Amino acid sequence: MRFAELFGREPDGRWAAPGRVNLIGEHVDYAQGLCLPFALAQRTVVEVAARTDGRLRLRSLSETDGWEGTLDEVGPGSPAGWAGYVAGVLWALREAGHEVGGIDLLVTDTVPLGAGLSSSAALESAAALAVDDLFGLGLGGSPTGRGTLVAASQRAENEVVGAATGGMDQAASMLSTAGHALLLDTRDNSTRQVPFAPRDVGLGLLVIDTRVRHSHADGQYGARRASVEKAAATLGLPSLRDASLADVESLEGEAQRRARHVVTEIARVRETVELLDAGRLADIGPLLDASHASLAGDYEVSCAELDLACAAAREAGAAGARMTGGGFGGSAIALVPLDRADAVADAVRAAFADAGYREPEIRPAEPSEGATRLS
Ligand code: GLA
């Protein structure tokens, strides 16, 4: 189904925004921490035409349901489903005082859905950039303006869709540049492009999608978020960003373990960035491994399939491996010597077959550019 067949005219343009993986800095973006995601080559593409009557007509080639309504019908919980990510962005921009009209929008391509690669942030970012261009908001041309689009996308996700996520995914999709990872400081939302080109040093990254979709992931995500906010409150701190390891020691039981993950993970991001800045990309493997151990042990957001993916990759020669994203399924990443990439992928597939798991989907990852207009 083409745009013109659905909407009776041609689109004004096409916009694309990528999915992401997080290199390191997991489950810290709601604790004012540091994270280091990069954009993937896989992108979500939207064709969009502006309307003057405030109506929204939203369709996707990968969804059976579309949505039609007016801007005034959009708000917390409405519309439900995938259309909430798109309509929510328009709502959040209006809430922030920007004048936007209606749109006809067709999603023609998408980042793999449900793989933990932030297909939702990619959709929000593509829609946000389209709306910015079509209604002349003037935000997409500078990192600061793009930061406003990131904030609107995050608000759409938090308030319209109702998922209490941090802002890492939207920032990665909107602000990344090719050949770099994005150092995001979620305390003030400042960013820095950190050179990250594994291929230049004979390394590659594999994204291993376990194809596990954990049905309780949303509740567990909210529970982790609540526990780190409670730990910060117990310590009398605004967030765990300001906590020391001594502070962590003063906590007990589960609170201590959750807080230890956050505090040590933020330190690992700093160490990773130091190594990358020093041209020592090949040395970051142990930090990836330590991040995974912390997420699996202290934070308890891994699962058997993610653990096996990382262990099998390491055993077959990966320099480091960790789960990436929210956890409980989704994807892991492995840093591998390029000449071992196929062997590592084969070993992970074999380990999954032996364990009786579904065959994982394994893709190479290349640090790519953020959201952009295509035509
Ligand atoms: C999900 C959320 C992000 C972040 C990660 C964990 O991807 O959308 O905001 O919290 O989990 O790092």
Radius of gyration: 20 Å
Spatial order of the strands forming the largest sheet? 5-4-6-3-1-13
What's the total helix number?
A: 11
CATH topology of the largest domain: Ribosomal Protein S5, domain 2
Mean pLDDT rating: 97
Tell me the number of structural domains.
2
Instruction: Name the hetero compounds present.
Output: alpha-D-galactopyranose
Unreliable runs: none
- What general outline do the C-alpha atoms trace? globular
The level of helicity is 40-55%
- As a percent range, the share of strand residues is 15-25%
Order of helices and strands: HEEEEEHEHHHEEEHHHHHEEHEE
SSE layout and pairing:
Elements: H1 3-7, E1 13-22, E2 34-35, E3 37-51, E4 55-60, E5 67-70, H2 83-95, E6 102-109, H3 119-134, H4 143-161, H5 168-175, E7 180-185, E8 190-195, E9 203-209, H6 217-235, H7 245-250, H8 253-277, H9 285-297, H10 304-315, E10 320-323, E11 331-337, H11 341-355, E12 361-365, E13 372-373
Parallel strand pairs: 4-6
Antiparallel strand pairs: 1-3, 1-13, 2-7, 3-6, 4-5, 7-8, 9-11, 9-12, 10-11
The structure holds alpha-D-galactopyranose.
Summarize the structure in words.
- This protein has a 6-stranded mixed β-sheet, with helices on one face. It has a 4-stranded antiparallel β-sheet with strand order 10-11-9-12. The protein has a 3-stranded antiparallel β-sheet with strand order 2-7-8, sandwiched between helices.
- It contains 11 helices and 13 strands.
- The mean pLDDT is 97.
- The chain is of the alpha+beta class and 375 residues long.
- β7 and β8 (190-195) form a beta hairpin.
- α2 (83-95) packs across α3 and α2 crosses α4 (143-161).
- The longest helix has 25 residues, at 253-277.
- 40% of the residues lie in helices and 22% in strands.
- The protein has 2 domains: 3-195, Ribosomal Protein S5, domain 2 (2-Layer Sandwich), CATH 3.30.230; 198-365, GHMP kinase, C-terminal domain (Alpha-Beta Plaits), CATH 3.30.70.
- It binds alpha-D-galactopyranose.
- Alpha-D-galactopyranose is lined by residues 22, 26-27, 29-30, 165-166, 168-169, 325-326.
